[in-house]
Amino acid sequence: MPSAKKKLAQEEKQRAEAQRKAADKQRDRAELLVYAGKLALAQREWQDNNGARAIELLGECQWTCAAGSTGTYGRCTIATMSRFGGTRTG
Which of 29, 45, 59, 84 is buried deepest, with most CB atoms within 10 A? Predict the structure, then answer.
């Protein structure tokens, strides 16, 4: 009967892994929705010439760059925003 216990343990491990993956997916979706909301707010602030608030909102967003390091979105976005509307300081 040891093989039956081993099989049951493997099935439980697979269920736990599936649950973890589902939870990770839900967390990632929630984080994406928060990120999209803050990005939209930052864009609105930028358009309203409130660059300081836009930078603040972007700084609250965490992201992973292509190189794999984690940082704040705002540091890399200011140059992009500036290309489209000039430098705004608030």
Answer: 45
Residue 14 zone, left/alpha/beta (φ > 0; ψ -120 to 50; rest): alpha
Triad 35, 41, 29: Cα angle to 5°: 20
Residue 89 CB neighbours (<10 A): 8
Q: Which residues of 42-63 are buried (b: 16+ CB within 10 A; e: fewer)?
A: bbebbeeebbebbbbbbbebeb
3-state secondary structure of 8: helix
